[in-house]
Structure formats: C-alpha cells, structure tokens
Amino acid sequence: MDQNILIYIVGGAALLIGVIAGKFIFAKNTQQKVDAAEQQAKKIISDAQINAENQKNQKHEKIYLPPCITLRTGCQHDGPGKSGPGHDQKNP
What we know:
mainly alpha
C-alpha cells in the first residue's frame, strides 16, 4: 500500500512539473505569434485604408469613353484617335 501511494505522489509531482515547464516554454512561442499577428493586422488595416483612399480618388477622375467602347457596337466616333469602321489606319 505504501508503494502505491509513493507512485501516485511521484506521478502527480512529475505531472505538475511538466505542466509548469510547458507553460513557460510555450508562453514565449505564443507571445511571439501574437505579436507577429498584431503586426500583420496593422499592415492589413494600413493597406486597406490606402486602397480605400485610392478608390475614392479614382471615382473623382472621369475617363471619357466613346460610345463604341461602352456599347460594343460599331464606332461612329470622330474624336481623338479616329478608330473604328470607316477610318482607315493607313491613310488618316
């Protein structure tokens, strides 16, 4: 009976030491991963803000597209470039 109690005490002590050692070992690794994730999250937020401002600025810039480009029909446009049916590229 005394030998069984000694085995339980030694096993419990080993378990307790293992849990405490594991906590200290993995705490460093976990903290490094948390710090890396926070830095990555800050970078993603910063990139998203820059992207949103770029899109906001692009909405204010209107680009002229002749109807032949937007409607995909034969171009009857005589604007810059003069391309499309009826405009020969060799003899402008």
